Please model this.
Amino acid sequence: MRALMVYLLRSYTASQRYFGPVAGTIIAVLILYSYTPNPVMNSYAATAIILFAGSAWMGLSFLNHEHPVQRQVTIVQAKSKWRYNLGTLLTLVLFIMLLDLLIVIYPVLTGHFDEPAGLYRMTLAFAGHFLLGLLGMAVSLYLQASWVPKTSYAAGLLLTVLIISIGANKMSALIPGPFVHLLLPPAAPVMDVLMNADSLPLMRVMGAFLHALVYIMLLTGFYLYRSSRMDDRKSL
Amino acid sequence: MTLAGISTQRRAEGNASPLIELTRATKFYGRRPVLSEVSLLVESGTATALIGRNGSGKSTLLSILAGLTKISSGTLVRYERRLTVGYAPEAFPGLKLPAEQYLLCMGKLAGLTSAAAEARVTELLEVFHLEEFRRQSMAGFSKGMLQKVNLIQSLLTQPQLLLLDEPMSGLDLPAQHTVIRLLQELKRRGTALVFSIHEPETVEALADNVHVLQAGRTVKIIYGQENMRVAPAAYIVCNNIPEQCKEDILAMPGIIFIHNEPEGASGDDLKVTIEAAAADSYLLRVLTAGGSVVSVEPCGGLSTGGLEQWMDPKPAKGGAAE
Model:
């Protein structure tokens, strides 16, 4: 698995497709912190949403960076399609974790907060960012070129899903039905609990995190199951 | 002869063991059939050539054997649980990675240690005359250079099954000879080769049997190298040759293949496949040595059902496989 991840990291960095999503995420975070001082958890909630969008974009660019013919070669060399798919997911998780760490530590190190963040709030922020990063990645899995061949459709769908996810609270209020808030990607609930983490009980925060975690696991689990059964063709 | 019959015969001749068996495999892309009821048995140490026009289903068949494409109906049996497969697809892309870095990654991914991968990559880059380009990005490589890198990645380990989609595409003549030599060596060591090809000479140099595909169907299977020779040849059986003359006779030019008798078989028949142009001299030499000619049969050649006519098969009546 390590060899596969090293190859995918090299291949992705050589393709330079990482530049757009990584630069976009970093620039958005820098703009957010261009005013000082900032409230701790409100800022973390905002940067978590930025990472959600950035991870979805990065996921799409990462999953599409490999030429379909080379993808066939990599799958055969990796000896199993399941192993290959798992390797791509783990590589993306590594990228997201790195960005998460940077985004959470940056304002603390540069003194952009109005008060000390503290270990508890930083831990919550790290977990919240990580979950929203994974959620963005999980959404992008279903929009890669082998699932949605037309790039313009994939981009449009991604944008729609991101908007719906961020505005999920409003959406579930507008759409009748008891399970709407459970079906929509839970970016808004995580953002809410991060924003109000200082006043909410820990169990409530954990509940929102667990909701996101189950959602991510279901999306990635179904993706792994389904993609291992799909044909890998040299043209899409 | 049936696949099972051929398999039994081959196993009796050597140590070939079955690796993959495809039975009445059909593949649809959407509603379009790209393969229809194709059967194929792949055994260790054998080479199977897939020939036919573009779009006849050769690449799809290779992709199925590589495990990249699922069949829509029929059965695919892998006799080895952990079958190691090498695969060189057609139209290898010009990646932005340097050739050496890419090949090292593929070697490690295939399970080689760093040192083994480095040694093997260096060896193959030298064999294919790519050592001076090893640190260059493959994005600037020519078609032939990319094909060499493609073949190298498939040859990094010694796979049990090697699948090559038009391996000679874009290669210069010396590189083609190198590939043939490497593949012959791999075959000798027990690797099963399955390759799609448009060059009859390569088929002749490597293949033990040929599957002719047309519109997704197997229209003919040619078994045995002597039946696919491009140059006209003759299969001659003689006997009563004095022992002291046999060595001289077998050293004559033009002999393509000497058919050894199975161990324990009786009789002193000498069976050879010989180029048609050398057949007269051979027969004369046998007769002057006091031998008798039992039979002379033409085999291969363009006029006698050889290979080249199947490179561009005409529409078959009913498309039945032989």
